Amino acid sequence: MSRVLARRGLAVAASASAASAPRVFSPHEALERVRQPKKRRHFPETVEVLLALNLDPKQQNQAMRVVADLPSGTGKATRVAVFTNDSALAKAATDAGADLVGGSDLIAELAAGRKIDFAKTLAGTDAMPVLTKQLGKTLGTQSLMPSKKLGSVLESAGDLAAAVKRAKAGAVELRVDRTGVVRAGVRGRWAVRAGS
């Protein structure tokens, strides 16, 4: 056990000695430093972007919750579930590439204990009353509940298809935490091209 801790300590010491005196990097310089060759890991690394905007989330006019599109995605495949009872919306979602499409039957399966194996949810307005009643607590605690403010509750087939494609491409939800900092994680192997 102590040998593992010693190796970790050496790795941390080596990275700390490679770092110069603390200074502020431009976003481009910071990304280049993250991409420098280092010891290979057995998992895809995550880079977390923190933006200190000096917002007070207790003030209603300073609360921020938006969805942003990343030009090269997050580097991680995203499973998207669509809840709708309308056959036209279901067909549009399936054609757009949604991984899981269903209405009341899918909601009942999830309420009965089916594993939640998706990362994003979208819904038609027709399914929201049932979805809220049966899965509100379950999806809400995992930040998966569709919201009209975030554009994940839709009425038309065209809007739903565009939202599915956007979610699959790697849209990231940004919100201010209670300290006034906005966080976004970009996951995946560093196969992202320089300049993206």
Strand and helix layout:
Layout: H1 2-18, H2 27-35, E1 46-52, E2 65-69, E3 80-83, H3 87-96, E4 100-102, H4 104-112, E5 120-124, H5 128-141, E6 153-154, H6 157-169, E7 171-175, E8 181-187
Helix pairs in contact: 3-6, 4-5
Quick structural gist:
The protein has helices at residues 2-18, 27-35, 87-96, 104-112, 128-141, 157-169, and strands at residues 46-52, 65-69, 80-83, 100-102, 120-124, 153-154, 171-175, 181-187.
Descriptive tags:
single chain; Rossmann fold; 4-stranded parallel sheet; 6 helices
What does this 3D model show about the protein?
The protein has helices at 2-18, 27-35, 87-96, 104-112, 128-141, 157-169, and strands at 46-52, 65-69, 80-83, 100-102, 120-124, 153-154, 171-175, 181-187. By secondary structure, the protein is α/β, with parallel strands linked by helices. The protein folds into two domains: 26-70 and 177-187, no CATH class; 81-168, Rossmann fold, CATH 3.40.50.790. Strands 4-3-5-6 form a four-stranded parallel sheet, with helices on both faces. Strand 3, helix 3 and strand 4 (100-102) form a beta-alpha-beta unit. Helix 3 (87-96) runs parallel beside helix 6 (157-169) and helix 4 runs parallel beside helix 5 (128-141). The radius of gyration is 21 Å and the shape is elongated.
